[in-house]
Amino acid sequence: NRKNKKSSNKLTYQNRTRRNYVIRRLDFGSSHRNPPAHAPDERFKKYEGILIDDPHVHFYFENLGSRWALPLSELTELDIDLEQNDWYEIMEKFFQYCNIVDYIVNKRLFL
Fold first, then answer.
1. DSSP assignment string, 49-105
2. Among residues 62, 77, 91, which one has the least CA distance to residue 1?
3. What is the pLDDT along the chain (111 residues), one digit of tens a residue?
4. For residue 29, which of 1, 10, 93, 101 is within the disulfide window of CB 3.0 to 4.6 Å?
């Protein structure tokens, strides 16, 4: 997703189901403010009402949609190093994290 043509630093990877539900979404170049209360999980409590200006991952929760996000730095299981990984490698790691195993993407799209 590269909607904002003015900003080449804005990038979104999404894992969706049934076209409407974003299960996970990895955002770069945008900020997100979590709802002010009632974190859906203990991991999100310290981010209630917090504006996240860094790369972040949105999570889907039943009846809440994907309104909640964590900074990418909190998700060590993604193993993304912004200094070392290029956009294609980040995509591959996000796919692995989402258990997407069968895909064909032309690497030249990321040059």
1. T-EE-S-EEEEEETTTEEEEEEEGGG-GGG---TTT--HHHHHHHHHHHTT------
2. 91
3. 445 555 567 888 889 887 678 899 999 999 999 999 999 999 999 999 999 999 999 999 988 989 999 999 999 999 999 999 999 999 999 999 999 988 888 888 877
4. 10
C-beta separation of 65 from 32 below 8 A: no
> In sequence order, which residues have a C-beta less than 8 Å from that of residue 85 and are 6 or more positions away?
93
Calpha distance 31→23 (Å, rounded)? 19
For the chain, percent helix, then strand, then coil, each to nearest 5?
A: 25, 30, 45
What length does the chain have? 111
Read off the pTM: 0.85
Is the CB of residue 96 less than 8 Å from the CB of residue 75?
no
93 and 66 Cβ atoms separated by less than 8 Å: no
In the numeric block, the tokens 């989402």 are attached to: 98
Q: Tell me how far the alpha carbon of residue 95 is from its chain's centroid.
A: 11
